[in-house]
Amino acid sequence: MAVCEAYVRFLCGNPEYQTVILMNDRVFSPELRAEKTKLSGMSKELVDEYCRSVGMPDGVRNRKLLAVRACLYGTAALVNSGEADLDDGAIEMMTVAVGREFDSD
């Protein structure tokens, strides 16, 4: 959970980074698309590593990845838009949501 918290704090401190990660890349060159994929690869690697370690099937792993990314990017987007506050429990709520996702299977 510490990695999730640090990543959300990073995204909140660097909103342009999140903007690039979430951009529609259909107009990007293959090289730019590959670079963009690298930027968001850490969350995939961490989720994949955990899911493999507990023998989770690929379909479940993909659902977990989507849920984790939704929590991370959603929390950062809400904080960056002023709808949530890091100091008002947003990080704690995000870590609880991510934790519940992995406790459910």
How is the secondary structure organized here?
Blueprint: H1 2-13, H2 15-22, H3 30-39, H4 41-53, H5 58-80, H6 90-103
Helix pairs in contact: 1-2, 1-5, 1-6, 4-5, 5-6
Gist?
With 105 residues, the protein is mostly helical.
Can you walk me through this structure?
By secondary structure, this protein is an all-alpha fold. It has one domain (2-103). Helices cover 76% and strands 0% of the residues. It is built from 6 helices and no strands. It is flat. The two termini are 17 Å apart.
Return the string of H and E elements. Answer: HHHHHH
How many DSSP-defined strands? 0
Q: What's the domain count?
A: 1
Tell me the structural class. Answer: mainly alpha
- Helix percent band: over 70%
Defining key terms:
0% strand, 105 residues, mainly alpha, single chain
